[in-house]
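In the current project phase, our protein records have gained a structure token line. A sample record follows, to show the layout:
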Amino acid sequence: MSESTLILHRGAKIVSREQVAAVPLIESTDTYFPTPHIEVLETAERTLKTAGFEISKSQLALSADGARFFGTLDLQSSIVEGVSLAIGVRNSIDKMFPISLTAGSRVFVCDNLAFSSEIYVAKRHTKFGKLRFDEGIAKSMQSLGQFKQLEAKRIEHYQACEMTDHQAESFLLRAYEAEILTHFTLPTAIKEWRKPSHEEFAKRNAWCAFNAITESLKVRQSNPQKFAGLTMKLYGLLDSTVGFSTAI
């Protein structure tokens, strides 16, 4: 299994399915009804299967003494060559964040992961929160095929948009100003643009600039939930830079 740094963040550890299931659930209150991590994971898996998607690999992690869960599910569904669909799920039983699911892509060669905002489901831990989450992801999976088309269109657009060094470095600076990159990750992104670790990204285009940033984020990122938000922002910034529209 590839050990994605999205999962290996500070204070967290990759765990087995059994360890996720073994996390004890705190008692409900009048206003807070926590859902077990394993139920969130199984709901996502079951819904994907029902929608006709097969999971090729999963990575599961726990942090905060098991109170917070994050998982990625890679699907056997290619977007473009070398890139597959991926699903991210998260849950907490300490009131830190709601039950959530988002879709994105994983680049095989460097194991880079990025989440998009086009499919995002989040439901609070209320009395009917789990039911609403089930309904929400069932609805979102109906649009996963359309999302796949959108991602293919987006990546192909990125690949077709040539960038000079000046344009790419200007974009990296904009990513820094947007707080996608930090003073720690910006030098890595610049290095990955100028001398990429993977020859697939030696071409001078927007897709290579995108992967220079995701490569830098996975090195320094310490929080998987924040990582998902950063990659969503990255998509938005690059879409506006190269003139990509999400309308199919």
DSSP finds eight helices and six strands in the chain. Strands lie at 13-14, 55-63, 68-80, 83-92, 99-107, 112-123. The longest strand covers residues 68-80. The radius of gyration is 18 Å.
